[in-house]
Amino acid sequence: MSFSTRLWHPNVSSQTGAICLDTLGTAWSPVLTIKSALLSLQSLLSTPEPKDPQDAEVASMLMNDPDMFERIAREWAIKHAAAPSNTTWNPQVHVSATSKPKSKQTLSREEEMKKYHGYNKELIDRFVNMGFDLDRVVEAFEFVHIDKNNGEDYELEEAYMGDITARLLGEP
């Protein structure tokens, strides 16, 4: 799998469109579906891994000059993907339809953190941002016995990502 549209991302070759994602290569398993592969790809695109790059130049720019990285990524989106040139990113506009209602968003920080059952918020939110319900993501983490790592963020191994995704998608 590769992109035919050029994009500026550390885990995608800016020359060939090749994707640096283990689930598409060495970590592929018959249990993975197209849907789970696309979810893994969505996660990679929204959470770049500059320490494991497909394109070292892009990764270096992301780590050393994030403003320039963002500017060039935007230019490439306009030039190569026909992105609108007169818009700005507003995360509030791009909230998924499964996000929490406003009344729940007013919970205190402590009450909100209890919902994560000791897992790091950013770790869980990577899956929530793909459109999965917070409670279902936490349940999937507990079902797969994911380490809470004392509430610290860390990168999940590809096999665990596949197991969690399969659980969230109701696959065996």
TrEMBL record:
The keyword ATP-binding applies. CDD domains: UBA_II_E2_UBC1. One of its GO terms (molecular function) is ATP binding. It holds the Pfam family UQ_con. Keywords: ATP-binding, Nucleotide-binding, Transferase, Ubl conjugation pathway. Gene3D superfamilies: Ubiquitin Conjugating Enzyme. Residues 1-82 form the UBC core domain. The keyword ATP-binding applies. This is Putative Ubiquitin-conjugating enzyme E2 1.
